[in-house]
Write a structure and sequence with these properties.
Elements lengths: L4 E3 L10 H4 L4 E3 L16 E4 L2 E4 L8 H13 L4 E6 L4 H12 L6 E5 L12 H9 L6 E4 L7 H10 L4 E4 L3 E4 L14 E5 L4 H12 L6 E4 L5 H9 L4 E4 L2 H4 L3 H15 L7 H7 L3 H11 L1
């Protein structure tokens, strides 16, 4: 079966790089809002020592233009499509989900409940999921922030409200200063932090949620190798999304897929997905797998 690989929302423009999108099992769109948005002013991206900051700000064409102009072209890729939607009220989520419910080309709707790059504070995540659930029968994945104190409680709340799966995790707020001026490197100062430094946070969030709710989880955050991906599967993810790595290595999915298989074989696993049950259900099995990999 293997481990399905996706892109993290906003980390790949499939229309500009269709050959890259086709290396994935699923393509996830950038977050779509009801109305067009220009996003935040530049500078919007800054590389840091251990990752990347971004402050794009939900730039997009709006739901109507997306459905009429972008979706037909994305459907030609031949890759399963997930659409990320966002907004600033329950009405926004309802509008987008109701519009997408009629689109057979969309298999899953991912609810962006945790964007750190917009000033408006949306309603409670469970309320937004409930509003979306009332307008569509499509599978809903709730994308949660790692910044909250009790992500397990948030996972329970959104699943109880109708979420069919979780996407963990979104970026976390960060700030970088110019070494000379000591001024923020992003125009809005604070942005969403991603990259290798996010991986331990993502592992913790996936683990605690996987032991709290029984729904599929897309793990993401700092994945740059097959071992990174396998670690997320080990703590409970059923699929893995690539984000920051795609900026430096657009074809990373092909390499990481091969590395996942190699890491699994080194641990005596015929299917990389088997590492999940070994860790989540029977932690003692992990000791034997470590011994096998060191043999």
């Amino acid at each position: 079966m293997g481990v399905p690989l996706l892109n993290a929302s906003g980390c790949l423009d499939a229309l500009a790089a269709p050959d890259v999108a086709k290396t994935l099992d699923v393509f996830v769109t950038k977050t779509i809002t009801p109305l067009p948005r220009e996003g935040n002013p530049p500078v919007r991206i800054a590389e840091t020592e251990h990752g990347m900051l971004n402050s794009i700000g939900l730039q997009g064409p709006g739901i109507d233009a997306f459905v009429s102009e972008h979706l037909p072209r994305l459907a030609e890729l031949g890759v399963e499509l997930w659409v990320s939607v966002g907004g600033f009220s329950a009405d926004d989520y309802e509008l987008c989900c109701e519009r997408l419910d009629r689109e057979e080309r969309v298999s899953v709707i991912e609810l962006n409940l945790s964007c750190p790059n917009v000033e408006e504070a949306p309603e409670a995540a469970a309320q937004l999921v409930a509003a979306a659930r009332a307008t569509t029968d499509k599978p809903l994945y709730a994308k949660l922030s790692p910044a909250q104190w009790d992500v397990a409680a948030a996972a329970r709340a959104v699943v109880d409200a109708g979420a069919d799966g979780l996407s963990l995790v979104n970026t976390i707020r960060g700030l970088a200063l110019d070494a000379v001026s000591l001024r923020p490197r992003l125009a809005r100062a604070v942005g969403g932090y991603s990259g290798p430094a996010l991986k331990p946070i993502a592992l913790a969030c996936v683990h605690v949620c996987a032991t709290t709710v029984d729904v599929p989880i897309v793990g993401m955050g700092g994945v740059a190798s097959g071992l990174d991906a396998l670690e997320l599967v080990a703590v409970g993810a059923s699929a893995v999304a690539l984000g920051t790595v795609l900026f430096a290595d657009p074809l990373a999915a092909e390499r990481i897929r091969a590395e996942i298989d190699a890491e699994a074989r080194a641990r005596g696993l015929a299917d990389p997905a088997d590492v999940r049950s070994a860790f989540v259900v029977q932690p003692e099995n992990m000791l034997q797998m470590r011994k096998n990999s060191n043999a």
